[in-house]
Amino acid sequence: MTSIYEERPWLKNYNPGVPADLEFPSDKSAIDLFNEATEKWGDRTAIVFYGNKIKYKELRDKVDRFATALAALGIKKGDRVGLLLLNSPEFVISFFGALKAGAVLTQISPVYVSSEITHQLTDSGAEHVICQDILYENVERTGIKLKNVILTNISDSLPKLKKMMGKSILRGVYQKMAAPAPEIFEGEGIYRLHDLVEKYPPKPPQIAIDPKKDLVMLPYTGGTTGPPKGVMISHYNVVANHYQGAEALEVLKDAEETVVGFQPFYHAAGGMTLNGVIFRGNTIVIVTTPDMDEILMDLVKYKATYFTSAPTMYEMLKDYEKTDRVNWKKLKVIGSGADSLHEYTARDWEDRTGSKITEGYGMTETTTITHWNPVGKQKYGSIGLPITSTLAAVLDPDEDAYAPVGETGEIVVSGPQITQGYWRRPDATKECEAVINGIRWWRTGDLGRMEEDGYFYVYDRKRDLIKYKGLRVYAREVEEVLKDHPNIKEAGVVGVPDALVGQNVRAVIVLESDARGKISEKDIKEYCQDKLAHYKIPKMIDFVGEIPKTDIGKVSRREIRTEED
């Protein structure tokens, strides 16, 4: 029997002109999208980097030269290449250059320590690394014998007058790290990216790509349930999701927009922004570190038309004294993703700026985007509607059966952007798949619901569900109640194992500076009395100076749980 989810009730809320489905070219690769953009818009500015402007034809030349160099170094189709880079033109050059050489990119978080880098390089089988010079020490500590190491310095693409600014750009975040001594380049297999681009001609190898089979990248999941897993993202995934995203953000036009790109490019959210700009002939103003003053200045200076960020940035900006320097109402889209946007943040933002935040949803396993709020039809608290050519549903968390509309269950998605599965982990892949009525669904691990109008709402991560004597406690619900307290700045909630009741609720709280030492554990519990059922009220409360976060600004419940252990 056909389910209401399969009938797609959300289609009636699409903006006019947005199609229900698209035919995606099965013979087009991500390389083709890059080539088409750089040929069509060669004289347009692709990248602005601290004042240095790079046109599309210049970017194409550098990418082609780098691809030629990689082929000369022996990198061939299917080879995995680690990409450990900060946001910079070199990230763009490396990403597309490696693709043109036939490589599969595995992007590594710049905040990873050597043990985490070891796992990703070993698991992916990467024997080549393109690395920020100040991050190389962590690669060296892995002890892995690499065939090629290509280093780049943050100042390589800075204007001549700003070369000395390179260190100051990074000082706040990477002040304890230093570039290796120049003598390192005398060693075998270690090169400067800048030298390779200058040395080789723009004659990249011609690589035959099967878009549905061949991979673009192997990003790794956050590892909240065991070691991080490589996610196989094909050329077809990337191409299809690009066209889907263009329909979702239909107010944005080709060769007309300017975006400030500060979200990390290695992450799905930042990667979506980067590819969406390049493939559509628009301009990206690259910011290496997320400095609020720099971001606000660039939004004004370059007349940005589109801004996207994680919710934590909006939470900071809504209270920041300089936020009003930007006329936010002039931007076509102000997007949010990578984490749940709390409704109070969205409403405070609208009160402050007169503009609406548009929330979307996606994950590493879905290339990038699966849901989006249509501009003009945003619903606060909702991740929006499934985008073109995408199905979404809510399943019983424990079995392959649809949950009734309006009830909370596990959100599942199906579409051309969904991963083939986890790299060399068929069992893990199978655990995330469900087949109902011939449809292959991917379990997202997010608990949520769909209302009758087709709008979806994410409530919590399945793994963060707390079970007290068989009763369900959603960590996010408790966090939102705590954050409404006038003296609480931040809160994180997890379940702590207890042999008698299953799990107890533990809250980690950061108080506002003027309330520290004045608010007690008892005060917090009394505050929750008429706002939460008794079993949802935290049994354990810890006051801390800072809550651990992931490198994209999410509260890291995994680290909070680890602290308890």
- Gap between N and C termini, in Å? 47 Å
Rg (C-alpha, Å)? 24 Å
**Total of DSSP H or I helical runs spanning 4+ residues:** 16
| Percent of residues in β-strands | 15-25%
Secondary-structure content class: alpha/beta
State the major sheet. 5 strands, parallel
What share of residues is helical?
A: 25-40%
| Overall pLDDT | 91
Q: What form results from the Cα inertia axes? A: globular
- Annotation, overall tally of beta strands: 27
Looking across the biggest beta sheet, what order are the strands in?
Answer: 4-3-5-6-7
List low-confidence stretches: none
Per-chain topology:
Blueprint: H1 30-40, E1 45-49, E2 52-55, H2 56-72, E3 80-84, H3 89-100, E4 104-107, H4 114-124, E5 128-132, H5 136-140, E6 148-152, H6 165-174, E7 190-192, H7 193-199, E8 215-217, E9 231-234, H8 235-248, E10 258-261, H9 268-279, E11 283-286, H10 292-301, E12 306-309, H11 311-317, E13 333-336, H12 343-353, E14 358-362, E15 369-372, E16 385-386, E17 391-395, E18 409-414, E19 421-422, H13 426-431, E20 433-436, E21 439-450, E22 456-461, E23 465-468, E24 471-474, H14 475-483, E25 488-498, E26 502-511, H15 521-528, E27 540-543, H16 557-564
Parallel strand pairs: 1-11, 3-4, 3-5, 5-6, 6-7, 10-11, 12-13, 13-14, 26-27
Antiparallel strand pairs: 1-2, 8-9, 9-19, 14-15, 15-16, 17-18, 18-21, 20-21, 21-22, 23-24, 25-26
